[in-house]
From TrEMBL:
InterPro entries: PA_dom_sf (IPR046450), PA_domain (IPR003137). It comes from the Eukaryota. It comes from Graphocephala atropunctata. Pfam families: PA. This is PA domain-containing protein. Residues 1-20 form the signal peptide. Keywords: Signal. The keyword Lipoprotein does not apply. Residues 86-156 form the PA domain.
Amino acid sequence: MAAPLVICVLFICFVTLSESITSGDWAPSGSVSSTFPHHPHDDGSETYYTTAYINVTFVDPVSGRTVREKTEIGKFGESHIGFSSGVLVHVRSGADNSGCSLPFKSSSGSGELPKEPWIALVKRGGCNFQVKVDNAYSSNASGVIVYNDRDSSALEKMKLTLKAKRRPLGAVFTYKWKGEQLAALADNGTRVLTEVTVAHHCSM
């Protein structure tokens, strides 16, 4: 039975807590990326699309309080719809954060990528979306968040192809301001636990 389609409105929900972070607060134990269900409405057109929740948990570096944010503020790329979770890494590739070249490095600390599941945060530009996702896959990321390089009120549906014999890799596009907010946290060494989940299947 086909999933119902809805006209979607993105929303933001912020919750601030004082308790400590545990892995059970943000992702199923041992999960990297779940099996991707078939979405019959992901037909490569802009008529149908799937929105994403970008859920993050981190300790505010100023107040020391635990912050949880659940935001329906992303749009999945074609053929890359599904759950992913891990520590957020603002990727440095070459001289920028575009994710257009290998090897990937973290923008904070020594530059070493985590040995635990992680989600690549990359900036739009420099190459097409497919190259960014392919490089994230090659670097063993569990998911990809691409943020816009320009101010826009619209979210694009990234044109992507799911290549044969590959593990699923969720890929989401989000706003410039949101990406820069997340990048600032990751760049200063804040540990941002991130979970990307399916929100709604939508029609224009």
